[in-house]
Amino acid sequence: MSAGAHDGWVRRKLFEDAFATAQRKGHPRGTGPLDLAQYCALSHLVVSSQGDPFTGFVDQTLPGWDISATW
């Protein structure tokens, strides 16, 4: 634990989270960086640890950003 921004506050890192994408070799998207607009335009396979086989964290977050996806 470490001191926080204010006296008496304590900060402790609980976890880190990272997202990964995968695609087949030779995929038409190419190999460059993937931005949010490109990500939203592509078809997806969702792997969710939240128990819902059809939506994941990204599906729940995008509407709050006023962004829609095509999947």
Question: What this model shows, in words?
Answer:
With 71 residues, this protein is mainly α. It has a domain at 33-71. The protein contains two helices and two strands; from the N terminus they run E-E-H-H. It has helices at residues 36-41, 57-61, and strands at 2-3, 10-11. Strands 1-2 form a two-stranded antiparallel ribbon. A hairpin with a 6-residue loop joins strand 1 (2-3) and strand 2.
Key words describing this protein structure:
71 residues; LysR family transcriptional regulator; 15% helix; 2 helices; mainly alpha; single chain
Average pLDDT works out at 78
SSE string, helices as H and strands as E: EEHH
The beta-strand count equals 2
Biggest sheet layout: 2 strands, antiparallel
Strand content: 5-15%
Distance between termini? 41 Å
Give helix % range. Answer: 10-25%
User: With helices defined by DSSP (H or I, 4 residues minimum), what is the helix count?
Assistant: 2
Radius of gyration: 17 Å
List low-pLDDT spans. none
The assembly state of the depicted protein chains is single chain
Strand order of the largest sheet: 1-2
SS class: mainly alpha
Rough shape?
A: elongated
Protein name: LysR family transcriptional regulator
